[in-house]
Design brief:
With about 280 residues, the protein is an alpha/beta fold. Helices cover about 30% and strands about 25% of the residues. The two termini are about 15 Å apart.
């Protein structure tokens, strides 16, 4: 038995050493209207269980629509990371200079991003309830997202249907119906390519909107994925949701193959081998 255990450990160590360095992801959470204190941990555990990724966090317990983040105003906040997951709700943060600093890693450095739920309703100013034209002063964040949204419907289930089933992020994923969620409206598209649409009953009628899309942003064509799904803890912890977000992370850093599987070294088996190798 001791020989077998030693052999298994050696194999785990060998597998771990053969794995490439993990993806370094920065997860930003905090702000209004959501249980970010719980969701930040759900996302970190869910992604690290699925991928060869290390998720580091910037979190604020400030639950206002103008949350105080330590990194705000620092354009180099994402230095050393491979990508950023924006999951903040900063709906009343509208200072253009601050927004430019948040965008700098993506616009100037070409850093990929995954944007979740209320990130779509953050960093906005001006008449954002009406369609904002490309290039307008208040189009900064919408140009990054690839889509402009200004509000949402009731807390009701959303029927999610994948519109582009051939995309690596969605290939093989099944349509599903969420628990009570918020369907964000689509005011205007700013280059987003729709991957999934959602249908929700609102005041006796069915309303449809894009709920997941990809985009290329800036002169360096940074890969950006966004989804408006993810209000409630049960949704964020749903394996179907986490699978989609995990694929989006891989796609953003170009580690997702055309068939929807990770590039060698970035899937779950490599992460398990690394964790096993560290155990005494």
């Amino acid at each position: 038995m001791k020989l077998l255990a030693a052999l298994l450990l050696a194999l785990a160590l060998d597998g771990a050493s053969a794995a490439p360095p993990p993806i370094k992801a920065l997860l930003i959470t905090g702000g209004c209207c959501h249980d970010y204190g719980v969701q930040k941990d759900i996302l970190k555990r869910g992604l690290e269980a699925r991928l060869n990724v290390v998720v580091e966090q910037i979190h604020s317990d400030d639950k206002s629509a103008r949350p105080a983040f330590a990194h705000h105003g620092n354009p180099d906040y994402a230095k050393g990371f491979d990508m950023v997951i924006h999951d903040e709700c900063a709906a009343d943060v509208g200072d253009p200079a601050l927004i430019d600093a948040v965008l700098k890693p993506h616009l100037v450095d070409g850093l990929p991003a995954v944007n979740l739920h209320c990130a779509m309703h953050s960093y906005r100013f001006g008449a954002f309830g009406k369609p904002v034209r490309a290039g307008a002063d208040n189009a900064r964040w919408f140009a990054f997202l690839g889509l402009q949204s200004s509000g949402h419907g009731p807390q009701e289930p959303i029927d999610i249907a994948f519109a582009d089933t051939g995309h690596p992020i969605t290939r093989g994923l099944s349509n599903w119906t969420t628990v009570n969620e918020e369907l964000y409206n689509n005011v205007a598209f700013h280059g987003g390519h729709v991957l999934a649409r959602g249908m929700q009953r609102e005041q006796g009628r069915m309303v449809e909107a894009a709920v997941a899309w990809t985009h290329e942003f800036g002169p360096r064509k940074a890969r950006v994925f966004s989804t408006t799904i993810g209000h409630n803890n049960e949704t964020v912890g749903d394996p179907r949701y986490l699978d989609m977000i995990a694929r989006a992370v891989l796609w953003s850093v170009d580690k997702l193959q055309a068939d929807g599987t990770p590039v060698d070294g970035y899937g779950k088996q490599w992460r398990v081998a690394q964790l096993n190798a560290r155990r005494p």
